[in-house]
Amino acid sequence: MASLKGSTVASSYKSLLKLNGNTDTLVAGTGSNAIQIVHSDDSTGVTSPLFLNTDRLGIGGQPSVALEVKGDGDRIVVSSADYNLVKIGAFGDSGGALDVGFINLLEDGTERIKLLADGDSFFTNNLGIGGTPSSQLHITQSGTDTADGIRLTRDGGESFNLMVGTIGQTAGGFSIFDITDNAVRLSIDTSGNINIPQKLEIGGDVVVSEYIKHEGDTDTNIRFQTDHIDLTTANTLALRVDNNQKIGIGVSSPSEFVDIEKSDNTHRALQFTNTNAGSGASGGFKATSNAGTLFMRTFATEFTTSGKNVAGSSQLLSTATGGLVLATTNGTADMSFWTNSTQRLTIEGDTGDVGIGTDDPSFADVGGDNLVIVDSANAGITLRSSTGGNSSIYFAKGDTGTDTYKGIIQYSNSDNEFRFWTNHQIKLKINSTGDILPAVDNAQDLGSSSLRFDDIFAESGTVNSSDERLKDNIADSSLGLEFINALRPVEYKFKDYTYDIEKEKAVEAEEAVYETVVVKEAVEAKEAVMGTRQKTVSKEVEKTKTEIVEEDGKYVQKEISYTETVEEPQYEEVNLYDEDGNKIQRLVSEAIEAVEGVEAKDAVYEDVLHKIPVMEEYEVEPAVEAVEEITEERLVSEAIEAKDAVMETKEKTFARTHFGLIAQEVEQVLKDSSLTNNDFAGLIYDEDADRYGIRYHELISPLIKAVQELSAKVTELENK
Fold first, then answer.
1. Mean pLDDT for all residues in the chain
2. Helices and strands (DSSP H and E) totals, the chain
3. What is the per-residue pLDDT for 650?
4. Is residue 378 situated within a structural domain?
5. Quick one: DSSP state of residue 99?
6. Looking at the structure, do residues 28 and 117 belong to the same domain, yes or no?
7. 31 shares its domain with 115
8. Looking at residue 136, what is its pLDDT?
9. Phi then psi dihedrals of residue 38, to 5 deg
10. Which of 25, 154, 584, 688 is spaced 20 to 30 A from 515 at the CA atom?
11. What is the extent of the structural domain holding 70?
């Protein structure tokens, strides 16, 4: 074979060598220090070229690295006579199917190892590291350092070794060693014992044959038995859960769902504490029952099956109907409520009397000790209702029905007035200005002929209604000088008398006595008594009031607007006429004569209207149906010791001289004049008390008439 030395191949030459006379296969130079073997007479045309540079070898294309194989098919294949042994790149296997492997190792045409482009690896048989494998993954290592074994490292620095045998701090067995902290995290010794230095979290079941024990403390354990679970401390049963879901604390056979037993001569309690300070935080004990009652018992006495307590016990009982009972069966034992180490409320066990601020409400007068409120300074009761609502105290008869509440003391926030009710009807009002008013016009008396006020003090005199609109059948007085002359003015003194007041009743020693009392007396049927009053109409009135409100930690005085409903008298407007029957009108605008630029206008008149009250009929006294007498048995006196009556004598004297009239004589004067009490309202007769009385203000008009008659006679005499 000839050799070429010292010759330069010009770049214009396409071929320097032809291989064995093959015109399509040649060796050519394509660049600096490069040799190219091609199957073409064109040095740039590449079919399956081989490139050899100074430090690079390329198969199928110009190399960019030390060794580079390019092509659309297989990259690298190592084969025997019959099978492919190693494959690198995507290619079809011996069966022709396209495989996704990146590197494949084969034996007799069977794939043993596959390394995919995405990093996944597959081993069809055993893998041995450090020795011949006897299992699918077999790692053999002779080192004893904690850095040996299988290392697992997470991106971030944590590193663990899986080790077998006596390595580092582990004496035999298997361990997981934390390289970062140089500590064993889990170990299993050759006896099968498992050591976990830190906490254990388990997401599934844990099966224990019998005991869970504390290391070095064999008498403290959890024991799983056939029908119960025990927690033992210091070799003593502390807690048991039996097969009936009952929990016993210090009890081997719990009788309740939670049964606690402790023999200790000190205070013991069941305590719950909520350390959260939020607005919704709370603590307590909750119990519910859909069918029966719930109760909490004290002391060691059992309850009956009905839920009632027996003698000597106390209970907190929740009934099936939603009621709540706090009770003691000791009849003489009081029930007390305390705050700040002070007894605030007491319910006496024997009487049921309630004391607020006192532990002995029975000190009050008999009949007034059901509720006693005591305070060292001021005592009071507050009733708070809405702005438009009422605050009321009701006095009931103890019966049932709407007629129960006969007496009421009520304050109306909307009208700012007190209202007093008797016999289930409002009788008296005290309005916002302090005026004392009857509930119904001209229907109630102040005092009576037998129950009189001594003196009535007033800045000005008594005012009687004298409005023309409230009167009918107006005529000249028929009583005058003749009537006045028939009266006998007298002077007199009221009788003196003394009377005894029984401070405490005499009581004989006796058992409880009951008597039959009349609950409702027999009442004859009566029709309703009707009266006439002026109608009223409701009207919404805008008002303002001053209130103190808190804003941003400051107290601010504000004017608050609100709407109030008031009752106003109702009137009807009618035309007003003169004596001749002509309609009275008033001038609205005068007549205007026509002037330049101004039209003539007639005078404009409008009717003069007169307001008259619109009256309505109302029920003064309701109709009464015939009712039979109803009686009942009531307790008259309880068993008490004998006591003498304690009396107090009081003296009343009427030594002053009075001037007036004798009512019976006035009555006789009326009879002599063929008049009755209806003809002179100044004479009063109280049938219930059988007493007479006189309204002296009714004599003012006859006196005026008598003076007018005397004046006329004087004038007549003077003229003569």
1. 76
2. 3, 54
3. 65
4. no
5. E
6. yes
7. yes
8. 79
9. -130, 165
10. 688
11. 17-124
Judged on CB neighbours under 10 Å (0-12, 13-18, 19+), 113 is: middle
- Two structure tokens written together for 344: 């605030």
Question: From CA 685, how far away is CA 446, in angstroms rounded?
Answer: 15
Highest mean pLDDT among 155-159, 238-242, 302-306: 238-242
Specify if 292 maps to a domain.
no
Q: Residue 145 and residue 151: Cα distance in Å, rounded?
A: 12
Place of tokens 């430090």: 55
If you ran DSSP here, which 8-state letter would residue 419 be given?
E
Among the residue ranges 128-137, 384-393, 645-654, the one predicted with the least confidence is: 645-654
Between 334-348, 429-443, 625-639, 642-656, the lowest mean confidence (pLDDT) is in 642-656
Q: How many CB atoms lie within 10 A of CB 461?
A: 7
Neighbours of 30 (CB within 10 A): 16
Write out the two tokens for 482: 């003749």
Within a domain: residue 391? no
| pLDDT value, residue 615 | 86
Residue type, 623: A
Extract the runs of DSSP E, i.e. beta strands, from 614-697: 615-621, 630-637, 646-652, 658-660, 683-686, 691-694
678 contacts: CB under 8 Å, gap ≥ 6: none
Q: Are strands 183-188 and 194-195 parallel, antiparallel or unpaired?
A: antiparallel
Gap between the Cα atoms of 202 and 314, Å rounded = 47
State which amino acid sits at residue 337: F
Classify 344 in phi/psi space as left (phi over 0), alpha (psi -120 to 50) or beta.
alpha
- Distance, in Å, from the CA atom of 381 to the CA atom of 392, rounded to the nearest integer, reads 12
Task: Find the CATH number of the domain harbouring 661.
Answer: 1.10.10.10
Dist CA 69 CA 60 (whole Å):
6
Q: Is 117 in the same domain as 150?
A: no
- Tokens coding 626: 């015939």
What angle is formed at CA 474 by the lines to CA 472 and CA 475, rounded to 5 degrees? 155
Residues 34 and 103 in one domain: yes
Residues 6+ positions from 513 with CB-CB distance below 8 Å: 635, 636, 637
Tokens of 322: 């939603």
CB atoms within 10 A of CB 282: 8
Of 197, 223, 254, the last residue of a domain is 197
Is the distance from CB of 215 to CB of 196 less than 8 angstroms? no
Between CA 403 and CA 410, with CA 406 as vertex, the angle to 5 degrees is: 120
Number of domains in the chain: 4
Whole-prediction pTM: 0.39
Within-domain flag for 429: no
How far apart, in whole angstroms, are the C-alpha atoms of residue 13 and residue 607? Answer: 139
Residues β-bridged to residue 405:
396
Measure the CA–CA gap between 115 and 123, rounded to whole angstroms. Answer: 9
**Distance, CA of 104 to CA of 122 (rounded, Å):** 10
Residues 6 or more apart in contact with residue 489 via CB below 8 angstroms: 659, 660, 661
Kindly give the pairing relationship between strand 57-59 and strand 67-69: parallel
CA distance 396 to 107: 109
As a whole number of Å, the CA-based R_g of the chain is 59
Cα gap 540→525, rounded to integer Å: 42
